[in-house]
């Protein structure tokens, strides 16, 4: 009897405890932890590569006769049609760039920056022409005068230091750019003059030559669009904070240079005489694509 009483009392206590526990307030579950997604910003240093196409359709050559008495240069220029000329040239360009951007408000907002680049340019042009002046006056014993003209102009590399300003729509950036430009330009020209007598050509009997190879400076301006890929994309070889792709257009102008052509008899004797002056202007356009690796701020 005593055992039964104890068991019944224990069961009653357990039932009362369970009922009391059911009346107690439940412990609140911990709130979920949210990790905020960082807002993209264009602020930071970057470096990258570019490649594209460069062309020039305005590399003008204006040739002026200096009116020397040794040779009627104007007649030669008229015969060859080289008084004034324009030449087209174009080719590959490729190089690299470094820069820094600052975005005033993360997400969407104004972006300013500075960029420096240097690139190889395959801009070169060669022209050649021949002409014959029949019965040229003033040269006794000469039936005709044969002419051969050749010119070459080249821009071997181009670099710029430019400011940039644009507006970012999160990962999409539209910008304009402008600043200083520099490059190495070369130019050479030769006009060979040959006499024909009795059907035989003595070539050359004289020539007019001129050239320059100089470091030129000027300006460049243009604009472009740029897009930032997700950080974990397959192009992020350097584990940078962002990889961006861009398409850019630049217009450059390195100014003009005067080249003096000197007349000399073959074989040379005495000091060459200035015969012509050629005004050569070096300018052109570039369209290129690029990739940048941004380091620093997300």
Would you kindly provide a brief summary of this structure?
This protein is mostly beta strands and 298 residues long. Strand 2 and strand 3 form a beta hairpin. The chain starts with a helix and ends with a strand.
Topology:
Layout: H1 2-23, E1 44-65, H2 73-80, E2 84-103, E3 108-134, E4 144-169, E5 172-197, E6 200-229, E7 242-265, E8 273-295
Antiparallel strand pairs: 1-2, 1-8, 2-3, 3-4, 4-5, 5-6, 6-7, 7-8
Structure commentary:
With 298 residues, the chain is mainly beta. It is 10% helix and 66% strand. The chain has helices at residues 2-23, 73-80; strands at 44-65, 84-103, 108-134, 144-169, 172-197, 200-229, 242-265, 273-295. The chain has an 8-stranded antiparallel β-barrel. A hairpin with a 2-residue loop joins strand 4 (144-169) and strand 5.
Largest sheet: 8 strands, antiparallel, barrel
Report the sheet-strand fraction: over 45%
Helix run count:
2
Number of DSSP strands? 8
Radius of gyration: 38 Å
Structural class: mainly beta
Please report the distance between the alpha carbons of the first and last residues.
79 Å
- Unreliable segments (pLDDT under 50, ≥5 consecutive)? none
Strand order of the largest sheet: 1-2-3-4-5-6-7-8
What percentage of residues falls in helices of 4 or more residues?
10-25%
**Overall morphology:** rod-shaped
Mean pLDDT: 79
User: What string gives the helices and strands in order?
Assistant: HEHEEEEEEE
Keywords:
10% helix, eight-stranded antiparallel barrel, mainly beta, 298 residues, 2 helices, single chain, rod-shaped
């Amino acid at each position: 009897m005593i055992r039964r009483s104890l068991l019944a009392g224990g069961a009653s206590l357990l039932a009362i405890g369970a009922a009391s526990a059911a009346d107690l307030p439940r412990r609140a579950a911990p709130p979920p932890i949210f990790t905020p997604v960082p807002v993209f910003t264009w602020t930071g240093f970057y470096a990258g590569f570019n490649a594209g196409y460069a062309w020039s359709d305005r590399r003008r050559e204006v040739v002026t006769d200096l009116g020397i008495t040794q040779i009627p240069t104007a007649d030669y220029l008229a015969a060859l049609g080289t008084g004034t000329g324009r030449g087209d040239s174009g080719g590959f360009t490729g190089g690299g760039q470094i820069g820094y951007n600052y975005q005033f408000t993360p997400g969407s907002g104004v972006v300013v920056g500075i960029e420096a680049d240097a690139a190889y340019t395959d801009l070169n042009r060669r022209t050649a022409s021949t002409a014959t002046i029949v019965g040229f006056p003033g040269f006794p014993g000469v039936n005709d005068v044969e002419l051969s003209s050749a010119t070459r102009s080249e821009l071997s590399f181009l670099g710029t230091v430019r400011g940039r300003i644009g507006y970012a729509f999160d990962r999409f950036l539209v910008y304009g750019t402008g600043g200083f430009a520099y490059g190495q330009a070369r130019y050479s020209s030769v006009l060979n003059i040959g006499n024909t007598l009795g059907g035989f050509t003595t070539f050359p009997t004289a020539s007019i030559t001129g050239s320059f190879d100089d470091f030129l400076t000027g300006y460049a301006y243009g604009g472009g669009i740029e897009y930032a890929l997700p950080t974990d994309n397959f192009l992020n070889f350097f584990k940078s904070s962002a990889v961006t792709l861009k398409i850019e257009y630049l217009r450059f102008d390195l100014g003009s240079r005067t080249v003096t052509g000197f007349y000399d008899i073959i074989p040379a004797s005495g000091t060459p005489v200035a015969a012509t002056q050629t005004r050569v202007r070096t300018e052109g356009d570039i369209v290129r694509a690029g990739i940048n690796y941004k380091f620093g701020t997300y």
